[in-house]
Amino acid sequence: MKVPQVLYETAAEISGARHTHAWTRALDFMLMELTDRWSLTPDPQPTSPWAGCESLVIPVLTAQGVPAIVRFAAPNTDNPQVHDQILTALRAWDGRGAVQVLADDPSFRATLQERLRTDTNLSALPLEQVPEVWGQLAQALRVPGPSGLVRVQDIAAGWLERFEADSALLRDFPDFTPADWSVVNAARLWIDRLARSEESWLLHADLHYYNILAGHPDAHGIATWKAIDPQPLTGPAAYMIAPLLWNRMTEIPSTEPEGQAAWLREFATELCRCAAVDPALGLGSAIAREVENMFWYLRSAQGGTQKAWGDATRSLWVARALSHVSVHGIDAHRLKPLG
Ligand SMILES: Nc1ncnc2c1ncn2[C@@H]1O[C@H](COP(=O)(O)OP(=O)(O)O)[C@@H](O)[C@H]1O
Ligand SMILES: [Mg+2]
Question: Residue whose CA is closest, atom 22 of ligand 1?
Answer without folding.
Answer: 52
